[in-house]
Amino acid sequence: MSSRNGRSSATEELAGTSPAVRELRRQIEALAASDLPLLIEGEAGTGKGLVARVLHRAGPRAERPFIEVRAARLRDDQFERELYGCRPGASSGGADHREGLAGAADGGTLFLDEVGDLSPVAQAKLLRFLDSRAILPLGAGRPLPVDLRIVASTRRDLHAEAHSGRFRTDLYFRLRGLLIRLPALRDRREDMKPLVESFLARFAARHGRPVSTLDPEALELLLGHPWEGNVRELAHEIECAVLATAPGAPIMPASLSLLPDLGELPCEGRARLRAYRRDQERTMIVETLEGLRWNVSAAARRLGLSRVGLSKKIKILGLVRPAPIRTLPLRPHR
């Protein structure tokens, strides 16, 4: 891709240096300019939506709309209304003009998220649309051609679904004119650190809570986690940790929800880990409460807890609100 139009930097959003991510960037750069339908396969949370948006921004349609729709939204009885739109008076309710998703994406990209969730009836209707590349809004007199690229995603094995008869074989092969398979996070652990750094910067800025860095022991916990929810689960974990960490302080193991099963540790190790976690939690809560003058509601919001939950922790940790400093009024000299 030429750097003159600014598209060469589109893949920079895909953090990581693993062979899998380098290959993903190469595929995006090679396939972005095509108008063929493209299918993105990957487990839940691997970033299929992000890849679809990067593909759009890296291609010649970058300045045109990118319209995303959950395939499950295209129900049998609403398929035409959602995808094609409707003209005034097309229904008994006399609804106003409504632009369909395909019309809104004209010139750009229509992203069908989790296309494997389509019913058999909706699959047949989608196949007809792909064959005709025209829309017939409800109440319109004639079909209207649209120029768009179809990108679809799925967490399912659509090849197996088609082989078993649960997904239309002809639709499967139409959608996967081109194919990108996303790796699971557990298969690219060398990308964990750059991903964490990217999420730290994003969520610290979003919540106005500067976080300096990640403690090495916290990073070890992250590296050892199975991450069944993939990048989405990691992002959620880092956002919660940012909210649970005092501004400017490093993220410690106590701020994570990934502590190992204490039952697998020796007794001495369990005791040390409990004491460490209790000390870290106490410090974090005290600093937050003192910074907010013991406003429990505000402190709970900052820590990502409910007010009841924080009150229980205050009681368990034996924290006592400092008594206000009282000054005696001056008596006038007689």
Keywords:
334 residues, alpha/beta, two-stranded antiparallel ribbon, 13 helices, elongated
Describe this structure in words.
It is a single chain. The chain is α/β, with parallel strands linked by helices and 334 residues long. The chain has helices at 19-31, 48-58, 79-84, 101-104, 120-132, 158-164, 169-175, 192-207, 216-224, 230-243, 267-291, 296-303, 307-316; strands at residues 38-41, 66-70, 85-86, 98-99, 109-113, 134-135, 144-145, 149-154, 178-181. Strands 2-5-8-1-9 form a five-stranded parallel beta sheet. Helix 8 (192-207) crosses helix 10 (230-243) and helix 12 (296-303) crosses helix 13 (307-316). It starts with 18 loop residues before the first helix and ends in an 18-residue tail after the last helix.
Task: Look at the structure and give the mean pLDDT.
Answer: 84
Largest sheet, strands/sense/barrel: 5 strands, parallel
- Which blocks of ≥5 consecutive residues have pLDDT under 50? 1-9
Strand order of the largest sheet: 2-5-8-1-9
Q: Please, how many helices?
A: 13
**Percent in helix:** 40-55%
Structural class: alpha/beta
- Per the principal axes of the C-alpha atoms, what is the gross shape? elongated
Distance between the termini: 90 Å
Tell me the strand percentage band.
Answer: 5-15%
